[in-house]
Specification:
The chain has 213 residues and is of the alpha/beta class. It has six helices and ten strands, in the order E-H-E-H-E-E-E-H-H-E-E-E-E-E-H-H.
Amino acid sequence: YVMASLHPMGGVDWELFKKHLLMLRDANIKNLVIYLFYPPQISDVNKYFSWCDDHNIRFYVRRYIGEYAKKTHPQASPKELLQHILSNPKTIEYGLNLHSPAGNKCSAGKDLILVHHDGRVSYCADIDNNNLGNIFDSDFKLSNNDIICPSPICGGDYGLLHMKDKHYPDIPNLLWHDCFVAQTANITGGNNEPVQYPHRREIICWMKRNEAK
């Protein structure tokens, strides 16, 4: 599947983004939209979610890690987001408490890759200067092997999904992300234990509360 990131650093051309999402859907390629819960664009989430919901495209929000307006996030994030982060022990270990992933075994490049706008492929966003080829090349293939992470930091998705250690299953059977909203009721972890994400109706309730503020 393709995780299509609507990210402020990439610039937001919503009309072109929608066109590409529909192109993927028409080609029977599963896709979902990642929306960074960055403070300046929190209020815009409603219009993006509504369109994705109308077109039956899964939409979820990622936590923002960093400084904004002299506040540290995600610690200063809304209550709903913090509740989800603190409910998932893997998110705490890899998303908050991991000071450096360097030296740990990771399956980035094998099970998940970062694809740039021009087709260049990297292990992940934190070592995106490492060009593994181009997704448009006919002979491009994913790696068969894990890597030893060379990055001093981990943005989250790769650590949460792909960092390998004795505490967690190697790879989840289905999606297991650090989102706090998801349009599905049937996400499970690596041992088929249910992962309790808010369902669509709860997303809509949250948006109504957000509008009221």
